[in-house]
Amino acid sequence: MRSSAGGTSIFPGRDDRSGPRCRRVDGHRRHHHPEGAPIFLAYGSANRDPRQFTDPDELDLERRDNQHLGFGQGIHFCFGAPLARLEVQNAVGEFVRRVENPRLVEDPPPYRRSQIFRGPRHVLVDIDGIRD
């Protein structure tokens, strides 16, 4: 994604030909970037915003009003999101029902070193058995 503060703004409906500067939107400071400057979105940070989520660092599978950015927004919303949610719900439900005494081998698991994707490289789990 690139901004161009010298003509087209990153804010829809706003033409800004005055060059790089800052402005306030909803009480937050917003920056205009020099034309051609790269802009990096940090989804992992946005999804852990304490202004949006109670206990943002805790895994809460039953979190209410979960307006995360994991599946995109608007016209960029992931077409497969409902199926992905259903698959995860079924997989986690079966795991909890069938696996006896699951525990992490590494706690916390090793995380990726990435500005774009946040999450563990792998999650190794020891178990005592599997129920039918």
Molecular structure report:
- This protein is α+β, with helices and mostly antiparallel strands.
- Helices cover 17% and strands 12% of the residues.
- It has 2 helices and 6 strands.
- It has helices spanning 43-46, 81-98; strands at residues 22-25, 28-31, 99-100, 103-104, 125-126, 129-130.
- It has a two-stranded antiparallel ribbon. It has a two-stranded antiparallel ribbon with strand order 3-6. Strands 4-5 form a two-stranded antiparallel sheet.
- The protein is elongated and about 60 Å long.
The helix/strand series, from N terminus to C terminus, equals EEHHEEEE
Estimate the helix proportion, in percent: 10-25%
Rg over CA atoms: 21 Å
Give the total of beta strands. Answer: 6
Low-pLDDT sequence parts: 1-21
- Taken from the alpha-carbon principal axes, the silhouette is elongated
Q: What is the strand arrangement across the widest sheet?
A: 1-2
Could you give the distance between the termini? 50 Å
**Which structural category fits the helices and strands?**
alpha+beta
The number of helices is 2
**Beta-strand percent range:** 5-15%
Mean pLDDT: 75
For the largest beta-sheet, the strand count, sense and barrel status come to: 2 strands, antiparallel
